[in-house]
Amino acid sequence: MTIDDAKKTKMLSYRWIIFIVLAIAYFFVYFHRTTGGAISDTLQDSFEVGSSSIALLASAYLYAYTLMQIPSGILTDRMGPRKAASIFVMLIALGSVLSALADTFSEFDLMIAGKFLIGIGAAVVYIPIMKVLAVWYRKNEFASMSGVLLLVGNVGGIAAATPMVVMMDGLGIQNTYLVLAVVTAAISLLCWYFVRNHPSELGLPSIEEIVSEETGEPVTESTSAKMGTVEALKLTFGGGRKFWPLAIWFFFMYGTIMLWQASQSGSFYKNIYDFSNTEASLMVTMVGIGMVFGCPLAGMLSDRVFHSRKKVMVFGTAVYTLVWAVIWLTAGSDGMDNMAVQGAINFLFGFFGGFFVVSYAQIKELFPVAMAGTSTAALNLFPFAGGAILITIGGFIISDKTLGEFQDLWLMAFIMMLIALVCALLSVEKGHEDEGLKFGRKPEKND
């Protein structure tokens, strides 16, 4: 099959427009997700509520996000990324309006409702992007593009730290959320105008046709193929080692990231090390900066250097676990109140924590592209369940904000990461699905 060069060029160019629009939407997904850690004390003082209420607010987003994961995969596979993203980004805008009204009427319950609605909307942004990457990009580009996406998201996480504090100080809670509502509504309209589900909707060749022409290999799987919802769910949750070790690993991996970045780190630095609001928010910012570098690097290492998702994931998990050991063992120790030292710890936390990005390429390759939305959403259920549950538990453990309470919480996180590391080692990747394969061993011809 010969592909018209002009159409091929247009297809390979237009996909970047789609990616940029959706990446901007994802910027605000991450922005809303990580605001809690930096502005927790501001909200606590403004609404006159306790730390458990602030933990509930932070977890409201994650509970909503978790509940919507399976529906988001089904909606993405059935409706297509364009319609799914456009509708649910608009819900983020509506949730921001509710958050603004919460400040107007001094009703903390409205703030929780707004955060919950934002979580519902945000849940159906990442999965459509993953579907777009599966349909518009080559397989050996997927992990790298996922890394770039997480880079953008973590810039949003950075903006949710120090810049968010500055915005609230200057504009107030109400006006800050109104600005966010207007910006997010505009992004929803951009999604509707620019995003397309498949190149064929623009009369352009598919990515598998382009790859086939480039390599001379026949097309073996169509990106326009469809699969029933029930069948997709059965294949995913019945996937054995193809799915469950990754799911459990992600529960603890991302759950502990959210416990630190989106919930307790700011309070830890202010109460144990006597950091100011600005200094504590800077520490949260360093986590995001670490991920800005770690996420794309992990994707590139996976695609271009090791040609392995699992090896990169295991290495990142191991070092990230060691960082948790440092946080636990040195909490409150003499000399650890140095901002340079804590900044380095938070940078490494985000850098190696960001290696989780390759898991999406790992799960995507283990299942048919027709169910990419469902399989990715099923995996994505677990990190946000982990975040919601661990943030809630952390809110109850940290009641008096004492050093002992924080040490107990950090020890719990370290133990969870040891379990996660074992699960990472037990996971499989494309070409190594055989239950008997050991980590790192190449399959023999007769395997």
Secondary-structure topology with pairs:
Layout: H1 5-33, H2 35-47, H3 51-67, H4 69-79, H5 81-105, H6 108-136, H7 142-159, H8 162-194, H9 207-215, H10 229-237, H11 244-272, H12 277-305, H13 309-330, H14 339-353, H15 358-366, H16 372-397, H17 403-426
What does this structure look like?
- The protein is mostly helical.
- It has one domain (5-426): Up-down Bundle (Growth Hormone, Chain: A).
- The chain has 17 helices and no strands.
- The chain has helices at 5-33, 35-47, 51-67, 69-79, 81-105, 108-136, 142-159, 162-194, 207-215, 229-237, 244-272, 277-305, 309-330, 339-353, 358-366, 372-397, 403-426.
- Helix 2 (35-47) packs antiparallel against helix 12 and helix 6 (108-136) packs antiparallel against helix 16.
- It is globular, with a radius of gyration of 22 Å.
- 55% of the residues are buried.
- Mean pLDDT is 87; it is low at 435-447.
**Distance between the amino and carboxyl termini:** 34 Å
* CATH level-four homologous superfamily name: MFS general substrate transporter like domains
Total count of helical runs of at least 4 residues: 17
CATH architecture: Up-down Bundle
The general outline is globular
Task: Supply the CATH class.
Answer: Mainly Alpha
Unreliable stretches (pLDDT < 50, length at least 5) are 435-447
The domain tally reads: 1
User: How does the major sheet shape up?
Assistant: none
Which structural class do you get from the secondary structure elements? mainly alpha
**CATH topology tier name:** Growth Hormone, Chain: A
Strand content: under 5%
N-to-C series of helices and strands: HHHHHHHHHHHHHHHHH
